Amino acid sequence: MDYVLLLQRIFDALFNSAIYSSLALALVIIFRATGLLNFAQGEMATFSGYIAFVFLVGPQPRLKGGGLAGLIPGVPLSVPLAVMGAVLAGMAVGAATERVLIRPLRNAPELSLVNVSIGLLLVINSLMAQWWGTGPRVFPALFPAGAGQNFNIFGARLRYSTIGVWALLFVVLVCLILLLKKTRIGLAFRAVSINQTNSELVGIPVGRVLMYGWALAAGFGALAACICANSVLLEPNMMLRVLVYAFAAATLGGLDSPKGALVGGVIVGLSQTLIPAYVPFIGFELSVLPVLIAMTVVLLVRPAGLYGTKRIERV
Amino acid sequence: MMRAISRIKPLQGVAVSLIAAWLVCLPFVSTTTELRQHTQVIIAVLAVLGVNIATGYGGMISLGHGVFVGVGAFATGYFVDGFSLPWLLAISMGIVTASLAGALVGIPALRIKGIHLALLTLCMAIVFQPLSKRFPAFTGGVSGKAIEARFEAPSWLGDSRMASAVYRYVFCILVVLFALGLTWNLVNSRAGRAMRALRDNDTAAAIYGINLVHARVVTFSISAGLAGLAGALQVVLVPYVSQDNYTVQESLVIYATAVIGGLGSIWGSVLGVIARTGFGALGERLSGMEGFGFVSEFFELLDEQAFVFGVGLIALTFVFPRGLAGIRRKNRQQTNS
């Protein structure tokens, strides 16, 4: 067995892992707090990706796209600023979604919430196709990813971009943990995640806290989209396949465990690259199949995943 | 069946006769292309009905029925060409294949419920398109595949294109009516009551002696079979299969149509498709209009089925949680309380 090649494949896989972990975190944050799987998370993320794109391109109407996007001020920004702007805009969209569409349905059956998130997926997807067209757009890399921009470890190339992406994710995670453990709002969010009714009884504004949760989740989604947009090109359906991997990652790690989302993302990223490489029948197109099967098996056999809490159903 | 007929309410009677009159008039006023498009609309009822059986009656959320439509279409094309089967047999094989695929999904659905099943079926819908490119022998790969066999009118009808179009139109209507009748009987039978029982409370259903495994798998295969039939009839109409037609958006629009029409009501599936067609026609009219500035942009969007149905899905969840077919039911409930 060629160990250098194996190491190289692992290094390559780690880049995708960061994307999956990030989007899986977004899904987990919302699921943990509300028990809702946000099927529109991927589309919300892609939308933020387009916002970053608009910030980057600046005043070039042909590239910028039509519709409401025309109202966004076209000042060409540098890449970090554009990404930050997109994350903030994405968070605003997330918060608004919670306030307008999700909060009124707090006591509605599960099916209603599924319907709203599916509706949202369809609406955002077609809005993006309408405003920016379905053609792929070139998106700059967040970190140097060109030829030769890598470390050489035992003969395998570890690209700067992979390290950069993980460093970025790490910094954001540290901020998240600090926010959750050290601030009042973080405490409130943890309380709401554990028990909504009791949180309400002790005077926590549950609705507003959940809104912050949605904003946080959308922020992680936006980050995932900005990382991903360079390697797969920005287009309206960009996040659909990524969403499958992210859902698989979240399920594998346990749908209500942020740690699980990170670990799940790494596992899914690795298996997406390694399984097709070593099982010839599974080509690139089928690479999603083992992941999907693993997800089904986890849901069947151990719905709590690796780190999730077991659900106890009252009969 | 007699009891079922006597249960039809006056309003429904009027609607049914209107639809019937429209169906009879159609072949006389449309060109072959228009007739084909109308037939495609009528076929769409089947796929929506499939979602309705699984989600509305069986309580298993399925966001991936486009997959079964695709499987039905691919299988029919494969059997009619590869094995030179007669059309009726090939269509049946299409239904059987789709049902088997449905049973495969139904088995995990035994334990995976609610939102997790929605997740699984959504993922299935997303990966179906890329996966089907991998098996070009069945699907024609990226570019799709033309089917050699044609579903032509018998010679005594003449061999004009119109005769064939009308023949296909009548055939599809008969098949759809037959399927609607079967489904109507099914949901009002012992099996249908079992479905609804396990939707509302599966523990109680099991206590009453319903075999959950059996009921769930059968429900899902029937619903997938209906979707497969829709796919098979698509091939009858247009002898061409391509993975391009089975996107996630398509699956979700089918689901949205079922929800908007009204889950748990066969009538609702028909209503949903009528609403879909109405909106489609309206959107087409409006999208051409220029000179309204910002509003024109919005009109363009109305031409996008996905957009209209996304908005419809959200709006209906808030206003009429029971869908179009449930508007009156909801009002009655309110006056009662």
Report low-confidence residues of chain A grouped into runs of 5 or more.
none
What radius of gyration of chain A results from the CA coordinates? 20 Å
Strand order of the largest sheet of chain B: 1-2
Count of individual helical segments of chain A:
12
Shape, principal axes of CA atoms of chain A = globular
How is the main sheet of chain B built?
Answer: 2 strands, antiparallel
The number of E-state strands of chain A comes to 2
- Mean pLDDT figure of chain A: 86
Tell me the greatest interface: A-B, 49 and 46 residues
Low-confidence stretches of chain B: 330-337
What overall form of chain B do the CA principal axes indicate?
globular
Beginning-to-end CA distance, first to last residue of chain A:
52 Å
The structure class of chain B reads mainly alpha
Q: How many angstroms separate the termini of chain B?
A: 33 Å
Residues in β-strands, percent of chain A: under 5%
Please provide a written account of the structure:
The complex is a heterodimer of chains A (315) and B (337). With 315 residues, chain A is an all-alpha fold. Chain A has one domain (17-239). Helix content of chain A is 69%, strand content 3%. Chain A has twelve helices and two strands. Chain A has helices spanning 3-34, 41-57, 61-64, 79-102, 110-132, 160-182, 184-194, 196-201, 206-232, 238-253, 258-278, 288-301; strands at residues 150-153, 156-159. In chain A, a hairpin with a 2-residue loop joins strand 1 (150-153) and strand 2 (156-159). The longest helix of chain A has 32 residues, at 3-34. The model of chain A has no long low-confidence stretch (mean pLDDT 86). Chain B is mainly alpha-helical. Chain B folds into two domains: 36-246, no CATH class; 247-337, no CATH class. In chain B, 75% of the residues lie in helices and 1% in strands. Chain B contains 16 helices and two strands. In chain B, strands 1-2 form a two-stranded antiparallel ribbon. The longest helix of chain B has 27 residues, at 161-187. Chain B starts with a helix and ends with a helix. At the A-B interface, helix 5, helix 10 and helix 12 of A face helix 6, helix 12, helix 14 and helix 15 of B.
